[in-house]
Amino acid sequence: MTSPLRCRRQSFPCTAVAASTILFFSIAQLQAIDFNKEIRPILSNHCFECHGPDNATRQADLRLDLQASAMSVITPGKIKRSELIHRIESHDQDVMMPPADAKRPLTDQQRKLLTDWVREGAEYQQHWSFEPVQNQPTKRHRQDKWSQNRIDHYVYLRLKAEGLSPSKPADRATLIRRISFDLTGLPPSLEDARRVLDDPSEDALEEYIDHLLQSSAYGEHMALYWLEASRYADTDGYQNDRTRHHHVWRDWVIMSFNDNMPYNQFIIDQLAGDQKPNPTLKSQIATAFCRNHRINSEDGSIPDEWHVENVADRVDTFGTVFLGLTISCSRCHDHKFDPISQQDYYELFAYFNNNAEWGVGPNNGNSPPFIEIPESWPVIAADQNHPVAPEPLKLTNARKEAGNGLKRPQPGSAKTLMVMHDLETPRETYLLNRGQYNLPDKSKPLSPTIPSALNFAPDMQPNSRYELAQWLVHPDNPLTARVAVNRFWQQLFGRGLVESSENFGSQGTLPSHPQLLDYLASEFIHAGWDTKALIKQILLSATYQQSSDAPTHLIERDPKNELLARGPRMRLSGFALRDQALVASGLYVEGVGGPSVRPYMPPRIWRSISNNSYKQDTGDKLYRRSLYTYWRRTIPPPTMMNFNAAAREVCIVRTEQTNTPLQALTLLNNKIFVESARNLAERSISQGGDTTTERLQFAFQTVLTRLPTEQELEILQDSLEFFLTRYTEKTSEAASLIAVGESVANPEFDTTTLAAYTMVASTIFNLDEAIIKR
Question: DSSP H helical segments within 432-477, as ranges?
């Protein structure tokens, strides 16, 4: 029989590959080649596009992602009888694979790996993230005197295998600041910092962690990451980008994190709270998660087209947020790398296709279906523990009787919330050719079905969103818990154990510590999906509490800190930087929840895309936490975007950090940072003490938690003297500086002195240590 590889030369084209994808799960297993760790990345990057899951582009009827098909070109243990090896070793351009015109040949190392793998028997494995979660016991290394809990055991074993040692513990002031930002997104108060610094007991840090976990700021901070993943915004997007009223859902998220709602229930309520046996107001509010997508209300929009786009967004978000899979790649064709077909995509689509919506939005207000939020809905800031009793839900459907069109809410109503509510008669779902709304394949209606490759719990065959949510959190589902704990790890370390937190598929990165990932996932499930307990365990580990300072040779060897030989170090987000300035200055206005606010922004910033002008708030609203800033999708807040915030047009679970001059200009010149510097200067003068040294130490410690060294204090004193001299000569500049912002400078302070201290405070805000969580 002719080998399928001989049918045509173009049957083996490749895609880009990076040698770095050849990663090792465990150095202890170097003797045997592991398919998932070493072979699958090569095949996925070089072969799957034409010899993988996508039936439409498959050539020679060969699938190298399936063992049964691959054995037609592989004879296990027999190199000379394996056509695959013959092709990758050939120099004949009509025979060689990948083809010469692909311009990305295999490296010598990759060819050797494939050859050795075939020689060893060409064993296949299921993709690692589809394998059951394994909580494998680990013994403490005999030389390990470092570990504080089981997390550290896995890390220490990897470090020893790499010939490395952990870094020394971070000093307590650094840990206090690190923990505060990681749990609340805010700097520690001077009182808290001094209390923990003055307490030498081993329990001091744990008590501080417990204190922060009970603060309302914890829920606000955790909600921020969820808002970006959930594409939450205050407007609909697209050209009209009209205001929507969704802050009630945002406040529900904050409340859920603060109440430590079990993560599995958190998922179920957001996907299908309306379909629970006895839905409450809160569970119905939770389903607004599925309505956070953009909505088009432009004239001439075709309802059927935009209905498809809305549902597709829900499917894509579902796949990314909960499964860590690029399901959207299957909308137009079979997935080229993962076992998800186009039919699989539209069978998932069917779960989200029955919402009673029209597709395009009204001219004003929220888009049906929506619920009315009663006046009794608690103001979270007033009473965090106020119970919400189940109440009858008033729901507005998307259509009235035929011909009556869309029922619209009252213009500008803030008492409604867009939610999920299925039609009594389900919509027909069809496979859409090329993903086009107007090209349905009506020969075969599709029913809600889990992709066969993801059928981890054969006893469950979900038929509704509620059953889909239950399947998602089933203990046998290996993806949900892995994806969740990986993102929590990413929040704390800046990099997940799986770096590609959005992609646990074949094209994603492999876990740096797979046994640790599975241990955390298993513990998360068996501890009742307790988010606070998981995060506390990580924070108490020696791994987390390492110093982030590292010698040059370690940084060069492991620039991304993949091996975890040092503590986390990353730049603060734009949200945290602004909030840090507000807290340090004393301007920060506490209070949880409520409508979004409009702080300082350029007044004409919206004119570039509409005739509307940005209307700035006044008073306390200017100084609320950045989480509550009004988010317009077409023009998001520039302070946040300059520091790589997600635009929230689509689901984003991982953002990259960049360095640009705009960031320095923002911190130096943005009105809120200048005003905060002046207010910190006032605090330093009035609360710091009577001497220059005491005042400078107060300002420095307020921002950085620790006291300045003698050298740092000398630099600050020199800077203060410089600015005192400057503003003595330029009194008008001093007056202009301290007049920035709505808050009024204390008239009791000398203008020149206050301006000089303001510039020193600004200098402190711009220090690397102030900008970086280290």
Answer: 465-472
Strands 440-446 and 416-418: unpaired
HSE-CB for 419 with a 13 A CA cutoff: 31
* Residue 385 burial (CB count, 10 A): 9
Tokens of 693: 């040294």
350 vs 390: CA distance, rounded Å: 29
Query: Which residues, in sequence order, are bridge partners of residue 482?
Result: none
Q: In what order do the strands lie in the sheet with 395-396?
A: 395-396, 370-372, 416-418
pLDDT, tens only, 331-389 = 999 999 999 999 999 999 999 999 999 899 887 778 899 999 987 776 543 343 333 33
Q: Where are the alpha helices (DSSP H) in 688-739?
A: 692-704, 710-729, 731-738
Arithmetic mean of pLDDT over the chain? 89
| pLDDT higher than threshold 50 for residue 397 | no
Residues 119-175 pLDDT 10s: 988 898 899 999 999 998 887 888 889 999 999 999 999 999 999 999 999 999 999
Supply the pLDDT for residue 392.
37
Say what the pLDDT of residue 518 is.
98
Alpha-carbon dihedral 504, 510, 513, 514, rounded to 10 degrees = 60
Q: What is the DSSP letter of 429?
A: E
User: Is the distance from CB of 363 to CB of 405 less than 8 angstroms?
Assistant: no
DSSP-derived secondary structure letter, 546: B
> What is the model's pLDDT at position 30?
46
List beta partners, residue 399: 406
Phi, psi of 358 (to 5 degrees): -100, -30
% residues pLDDT > 90 (the chain): 73
What burial class does residue 540 get, using C-beta atoms within 10 Å of its C-beta: 0-12 exposed, 13-18 middle, 19+ buried?
middle
Model pTM? Answer: 0.89
What is the structure's pLDDT at 141? 82
Is residue 337 packed enough to be buried (19+ CB in 10 Å), middle (13-18) or exposed (0-12)? buried
CA distance 408 to 364: 8
Q: Provide the token pair at 59.
A: 């050539």
Measured from the Cβ of residue 180, the count of other Cβ atoms closer than 10 Å reads 26
- The amino acid occupying position 746 is N
**Lowest model confidence (mean pLDDT) among 101-115, 277-291, 537-551:** 101-115
Give residue for tokens 């939450």: 232
Instruction: Give the separation between CA 499 and CA 747, rounded to whole angstroms.
Output: 53
With CA atoms as reference, report the closest residue to 271 among 366, 328, 352, 193. Answer: 352
| Contact assessment for residue 338 and residue 479, using Cβ atoms and an 8 Å cutoff | no
Of 382, 410, 391, which Cα lies nearest the Cα of 594? 382
The β-bridge relationship of strands 395-396 and 370-372 is antiparallel
Q: Which two tokens stand for residue 274?
A: 């309306």
In 3-state terms, what secondary structure has residue 194?
helix
Find which of 40-44, 453-457, 522-526, 611-615 is predicted with most confidence, using mean pLDDT. 522-526
The residue extents of the domains of the chain are 4-125, 233-472, 570-658, 669-773
pLDDT of residue 31: 59
Distance CA 209, CA 508 (A): 33
Question: Do residues 757 and 734 lie in contact, with contact meaning Cβ atoms separated by under 8 Å?
Answer: no
Contacts of residue 122, Cβ cutoff 8 Å, sequence gap at least 6: 70, 71, 74, 76, 77, 82
**Residue burial 690-700, b: 16+ Cβ < 10 Å; e: rest:** eebeebbbbbb
Q: Which two tokens stand for residue 730?
A: 């330029």
Radius of gyration over every alpha carbon of the chain, rounded to an integer in angstroms: 29
Calpha distance 96→105 (Å, rounded) = 10
Q: What ranges make up the beta strands (E) of 324-481?
A: 370-372, 395-396, 416-418, 429-432, 440-446
> Smallest Cα–Cα separation from 359: which of 239, 446, 236?
236
> pLDDT band at residue 46, thresholds of 50, 70 and 90?
confident
- Say how far apart CA 410 and CA 612 lie, in whole Å: 21
pLDDT at 682 exceeding the cut of 50: yes
**Which amino acid does the sequence have at 635?**
I
